[in-house]
Amino acid sequence: MTQAGIGDPSGGVIDAWLAAHRDRLIGWRRRIHATPELSRQEVATTELVMTELATLGLSPRRLPLGTGVVCDLGPATGPRLALRADMDALPITEHTGLPFSSTTDGVSHSCGHDAHTAILLGTAAVLASAPALPVGVRLIFQPAEEVMPGGALDAVAAGVTEGVSRIFALHCDPRLPVGSVGLREGALTSAADHIELQLRSPGGHTSRPHLTGDLVYAMGTVITGLPGILSRRIDPRSGTVMAWGAAHAGNAPNAIPQEGQLRGTVRTGEHLTWAEMEPLVRSVVGELLAPLGVSYDLSYFRGVPPVVNDATAIEMLTRSVAAIGEDAVADTPQSPGGEDFSWYLEQVPGAMGRLGVWSGFGPQVDLHSPNFDIDERALDVGVRALAGVIFGVGSEG
């Protein structure tokens, strides 16, 4: 990890707070990690955030649905920058063996949202300790990022982007070493939609498929045909990927089943392609099944658009990260994963960075794994990156 604090735009405020309160920052993360809560159930996490922000002398407000927090500080007039963290956990049983492992059966922070929340709390504390801020700040502690279409939509509906000129966030990345932040202008993630296809047939004997609709054959036609045709109907530069995750039909080897189900995802890296995806999928499925004598219902669930990082916001975040150390700024590719931070970017420009959390030793355990953990030195880096964006506004005049 490179030396932190080089060219610190805060004039030493960040260094001073971290030197005095690093254990507090780590303690927040471990407390949240040990008591994970599923999407829209983040009651204790919300209470923790509310209490800690109030202790800092701030005036936090709960989001209307009862979980999640928004809090303003700094100048009440002029431009306002927003900083966002997500709070929810996943329905995954933790296997890390950490002394502060999850105490909630079947639930864990295996995507790093405990770190995101702790980092934003630490950033709030740093900003609250400054004599003055160069710009107004809105802190958004968002619930329900892990469910589609995402709690960001609820936050936007509650008005969290009103008066905001730009918004910033970080997400843990176990592929990057601690001390670095992956930055990319343009598309960072992909749109992610879900498909459910229910098929029906009169059923029958496998010796006479010509007398009925061969449902399993129809399923196979869609399983192979839909991804293949999409790959020929969509520009490959869009980064579109269609894959099935579940297929269920029948029990007996000699009986054509009456019902079957397919479930899968469609992901694309381009906003325009995402807008056109649902009608295209519906058209192709209909064309594939038309000659096969089965009926069907297609449910298409739009997820989230791609996260597309604004050029100016990335420049601001890059300046902040570069002040952490000469090797802190890292390149990062576009991911086929989805992130509901994109809903904020439908309202205001902004940027998300990928926070390196790999220690440099041992395997790079992926997100959503029951063994996922972070190198807690990344908490410092996250605070420096987010707080540095705010102080950097003043340093730029």
What features would you highlight for this structure?
Aminopeptidase; alpha/beta; disordered N terminus; eight-stranded mixed β-sheet; 397 residues; 2 domains; four-stranded antiparallel β-sheet
Number of helices: 9
**Percent of residues in beta strands?**
15-25%
Structure classification: alpha/beta
CATH class of the largest domain: Alpha Beta
Instruction: Give the total of domains.
Output: 2
Q: What's the CATH H-level homologous superfamily of the largest domain?
A: Zn peptidases
Strands side by side in the biggest sheet:
1-2-4-3-5-16-6-15
Instruction: Kindly state the percentage of residues in helix.
Output: 25-40%
If classified by CATH, what would the architecture of the largest domain be?
3-Layer(aba) Sandwich
Please outline what is shown here.
This protein has 397 residues and is an alpha/beta fold. Helix content is 33%, strand content 24%.
What is the topology?
Layout: H1 13-34, H2 43-55, E1 61-62, E2 69-73, E3 80-86, H3 113-129, E4 136-142, H4 152-157, E5 166-177, E6 181-183, E7 186-187, E8 191-200, E9 204-205, H5 215-233, E10 241-249, E11 255-256, E12 259-268, H6 271-289, E13 295-304, E14 308-309, H7 311-322, E15 329-331, H8 342-345, E16 350-358, H9 377-395
Parallel strand pairs: 3-4, 3-5, 5-16, 6-15
Antiparallel strand pairs: 1-2, 2-4, 6-16, 7-14, 8-12, 8-13, 9-11, 10-12
Helix pairs in contact: 1-3, 1-9, 3-9, 5-6, 7-9
Describe this structure as you would to a colleague:
This protein is α/β, with parallel strands linked by helices. Helix content is 33%, strand content 24%. It contains 9 helices and 16 strands. It has helices spanning 13-34, 43-55, 113-129, 152-157, 215-233, 271-289, 311-322, 342-345, 377-395, and strands spanning 61-62, 69-73, 80-86, 136-142, 166-177, 181-183, 186-187, 191-200, 204-205, 241-249, 255-256, 259-268, 295-304, 308-309, 329-331, 350-358. The strands form 4 sheets. Strands 1-2-4-3-5-16-6-15 form an 8-stranded mixed sheet, with helices on one face. A hairpin with a 6-residue loop joins β1 (61-62) and β2. The longest helix is centred in the N-terminal third of the chain and has 22 residues, at 13-34.
